[in-house]
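Protocol step 4 of 6: structure prediction from sequence.
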Amino acid sequence: MNCDKVDQELLEELVKDGRISYVKLAEKVGLSRVAVKDRIQNLIDKGIIENFTVVINSEKIGKNVSAFFEVDVEPKQLQEVAQNLADNPSVASIYQMTGPSTLHMHVLVEDFKMLEIFINNELYSVQGITRVESSVLLKRFKNRTGYKL
């Protein structure tokens, strides 16, 4: 789906502040409030805007360790393993990647002790996982809160 210049401006403003009012958006893009509301509804209807959400600073709620995992899984068990991991409250996101049935997973936990517990009890105990590689986030330079058009 292609967006015109106005739709792109609306999306950029919504990425900056998802709570911005239709009135303020209308002022920024030079349209009426009703036209902006219609355009945003159209972006929703087309599936360009999937959801409106909030970005939470995980450290402010006590999740001080952010770790990323590459998890290789037996191909026949990929869906089951992915759903099992996705249901875990420590898993922030999980994606199927190219390669021999690989999952990429982002985990948020309180501290390194909880990371160790997650790895030993929640990850290594899952049947079908054949390999795990992990990396711990040291510093975030950019966080995906939206896509630049």
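Step 5 (inspection) to follow. The first helix runs from residue 5 to 16.
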